[in-house]
Specification:
Layout lengths: L1 E3 L2 E3 L2 E10 L9 E6 L7 E10 L2 H7 L2 E10 L4 E8 L11 E4 L12 E5 L3 E3 L6 H5 L2 H14 L13 E5 L4 H12 L3 E5 L3 H9 L4 E3 L5 H7 L5 E6 L3 H11 E9 L18 E4 L4 H4 L7 H14 L7 E5 L4 H12 L6 E5 L3
Parallel strand pairs: 11-12, 11-14, 12-13, 14-15, 15-16, 17-18
Antiparallel strand pairs: 1-2, 3-4, 3-6, 5-7, 5-9, 5-18, 7-8, 8-10
Length: 351
């Protein structure tokens, strides 16, 4: 806010948002807007947004519902940009720092020229990547890393995972593309699921040792490639659809982690005799509940950046749209909603 004489002038910025929750084929489902530029406080950083990425969470939040937003709702939870201002309690970043992060679902999203974010969930952008390449990484990297190392308790020491296996359901998607690479780094044998030739090739190129088809029963396919069961399963697609297959394929005392909510109850009793652990992963938990370990996402993103700059991980960007506007975001949402996306779709720059 600038003061001109006795008049306060509110600075404006471009953004893409919504007032109504509508199907993506309707023009008013996402709108080009002019909204107030936000101000920092406490541990907030004000970020000049250079590139954003889209994720299933974007269209899930936009899902049609009987609700009208007087203040526009801004979506978007993947961004790379530059710090332009830091709050009075900030200690981790300074203006000019290049950063990337996935944000906080309880706050306004990043589909705007400037964006506010708590510094504890922000990382230094990989030095070897540009902004578009970096914007493809945060949400999927946090999700995959937390799922594998925090939720399933896989050791990050590769010598401790010799002969251990992980099955990744939906291996060619955004999270799966990172999960394959992290699991290989940890020394696991990676079995991915994919049904189309292009997705099989994508997952194999990222390091998957074997590919099976998620539209067929798991156990017969696993036996063909030499496995009776798997030690870990990471479910990145319909939990209820694959539940019986997962319960059958998981090894005794194994661990299943899913990131996909269910529309109906699942039968946990199927896991009882094997003493199997089932755990959820939701990367917004720490920011949503302001947990004491919220700063772990800052550390995690910095670790990911080091792995990228060391050529251990690579970005999973598959398509770039320019500029960041309502038309391109509607296009990106529509592509994601068809459920056949490979890698990540990124939008770069406001025009």
């Amino acid at each position: 806010m600038k003061e001109k004489g006795a008049i306060l002038i509110m600075e404006k910025m471009k953004a893409v948002g919504l007032h109504q929750y509508l199907p993506v084929d309707q023009p008013e489902s996402l709108l080009d807007l002019q909204i107030a530029k936000p101000s920092v406080k406490d541990r907030d950083l004000l970020i000049k947004v250079k590139a954003v990425s889209v994720n299933p969470v974007d269209y899930k939040v936009r899902t049609p519902k009987e609700k009208f937003e007087d203040t526009p709702k801004i979506l978007g939870w993947d961004v790379a940009g530059i710090v332009v201002e830091s709050g009075p309690l900030c200690t981790l970043f300074k203006p000019g720092d290049e950063v990337y992060y996935a944000g906080d679902i309880t706050r306004q999203g990043c589909n705007s020229e400037f964006h506010l974010v708590d510094e504890r969930i922000v990382g230094h952008k990989p030095k070897s990547l540009n902004f578009a390449e970096s914007a493809a990484l945060p949400l999927t990297s946090i999700t995959a890393y937390e799922a594998i190392f925090d939720r399933m308790k896989v050791s990050s020491l590769s010598n401790e995972n010799k002969n251990k296996t992980i099955l990744i359901i939906g291996a060619a998607g955004g999270v799966g593309s990172i999960a394959i690479q992290l699991a290989k780094w940890a020394g696991l044998t990676v079995i991915g699921t994919a049904s189309r030739q292009e997705s099989r090739v994508w997952a194999t190129d990222l390091g998957a040792d074997y590919i099976i088809n998620h539209y067929e029963e798991f156990i017969p396919q696993l036996k063909i490639i030499g496995f009776e069961a798997v030690d870990y399963i990471l479910c990145l697609n319909s939990t209820q659809e694959y539940w019986a297959n997962m319960a059958e394929a998981i090894a005794p005392q194994g661990t299943i982690c899913s990131i996909v909510e269910t529309d109906e109850p699942i039968n946990l009793t199927l896991l009882k005799n094997k003493s199997v652990t089932f755990v959820w992963e939701f990367m917004f938990t720490r920011s949503m509940y302001q947990t004491e370990d919220m700063n772990e996402q800052h550390k995690l993103l910095n670790r990911i950046a080091i792995l990228v700059d060391s050529n251990i991980l690579k970005t999973t960007i598959s398509e770039i749209l320019y500029p960041i506007n309502a038309d391109n975001l509607r296009k990106a949402h529509a592509i994601l909603e068809n459920g056949k996306t490979i890698g990540k779709i990124v939008l770069e720059g406001f025009k």
